Amino acid sequence: MPRRNKITIIGSGNVGATAAHWAASKELGDIILLDIAEGIPQGKALDLFEASPVEGFDSNVKGSNDYADTADSDVVIITAGLARKPGMSRDDLMKTNAGIVKSCAEQAAKFSPNAVFVIVSNPLDVMVYVAWKASGFPKERVVGMAGILDTARYRAFIAEEAGVSVEDIQALVLGGHGDSMVPLISCTTIAGIPVTEFIKQDKLDQIVQRTRDGGIEIVNYLKTGSAYYAPSAAAVQMAEAILKDKKRVLPCAAYLEGEYGISGVYCGVPVILGKDGIERVIEVKITDEERAALVKSADHVKETIARLD
Ligand code: NAD
Q1: Consecutive H or E run containing 41
Q2: Is the peptide bond prior to 123 cis by the omega test (within 30 degrees of 0)?
Q3: Which residues of 192-225 are buried (b: 16+ CB within 10 A; e: fewer)?
Q4: Given 14, 181, 207, 220, which residue has the most CB atoms within 10 angstroms?
């Protein structure tokens, strides 16, 4: 009997468990939810599996503390690690999360040597580099989630301001996750019409700033953790693109070797995402100002990696 796709989600906290929820409800495959905490992944997975008759999805969802259960996964989503609390930057999480992500990636790679890894843990652009090194995989099969989330926030705010459906907003955000992201207003359209025909420049500038601060806005409300509905939905959109070989054009953190004049670092750029991971990095025409901001963003990631080494 042909087997279903298999998705492993490492870290069964807010982002991991909610990613399992989205993935199961979309019937993307069978799911292993793995965590270092005993009982939590088992309990959440069982609860989600018990929702399947009500919601009508056929997906086996199992919790585990043992990497042997993750064997032969098609996609591995890594969400393990600490999340931000008020007053913390993403970089504050670095040392602890680097150790966690390294060990998760090493072990997952051993059991699923052909998987595509989607990294979510923060600081994202550094963690995806750590996971890539630890996995020993080709760069195409280790990809970071940040751009879809940043773009989703930007699209949501634009839709709200313009009074139109979120579905009709196309947008692109480049660069590192967070403060150094580079939203491309030139690539933002509403059903193909330039956004500037709907929203004035000063209002757009405010939306760009709110997008940059999108993570901390939620941390300040929640106080005990960071965003998880939109981040997990974004990670699952990447998993879906890979599992269904959709060849979606999505902003993801990809390892660059000369594209956009940047080398040796993961950076948020538009890519084509299919069954083998990143099929191609797309180089869009950007202004000198946008290029300078992108290079600055990549330099910041490089400095952070150097501090980690
Ligand atoms: P959380 O605290 O709710 O969950 C983290 C889980 O990781 C916990 O269940 C913990 O037990 C588990 N864990 C810790 N060490 C582990 C290990 N060695 N092996 C397996 N599991 C381990 O946090 P969260 O809200 O789910 O966030 C998870 C990560 O995702 C954080 O680093 C957060 O900053 C990041 N994040 C990234 C983005 C993004 O855009 N890339 C968005 C939101 C959150």
Answers
A1: helix 40-55
A2: yes
A3: eeebeebbeeeebeebbeebbebbbebbeebeee
A4: 181
Which residue's alpha carbon is at the smallest distance from atom 40 of ligand 1? 146
Class for the domain spanning 6-144: alpha beta
- List pLDDT tens digits, range 241-251: 999 999 999 99
Contact partners, residue 20, CB within 8 Å, separation at least 6 = 9, 12, 31, 33, 44, 45, 48, 61
Could you give the CA distance from residue 48 to residue 94 in angstroms, rounded to a whole number? 31
Tell me how far apart the alpha carbons of residues 295 and 176 are, in angstroms, rounded to a whole number.
Answer: 10
Residue length of the chain: 309
Annotated catalytic residue 177: yes
Task: State in words which class domain 147-308 has.
Answer: alpha beta
Q: How many CB atoms lie within 10 A of CB 245?
A: 12
Asked if residue 304 has pLDDT above 90, the reply is no
Residue ranges around ligand 1 (CB below 6 Å):
10-16, 35-37, 40, 79-84, 93, 97, 100, 103-104, 120-122, 124, 145-146, 149, 177, 225-228, 231
Q: Which two tokens stand for residue 256?
A: 């660059």
Catalytic: which of 153, 177, 212, 302? 177
Domain boundaries, the chain: 6-144, 147-308
Best of 22, 35, 153, 252 for a ligand 1 pocket test (most atoms within 8 Å of beta carbon): 35
Does 99 score more than 80 pLDDT?
A: yes
Cα 247 off chain centre by: 17
CB 137 within 8 A of CB 117: yes
Q: Do residues 154 and 135 make contact, with C-beta atoms less than 8 angstroms apart? A: no
**Strand, coil or helix: what is 132?**
helix
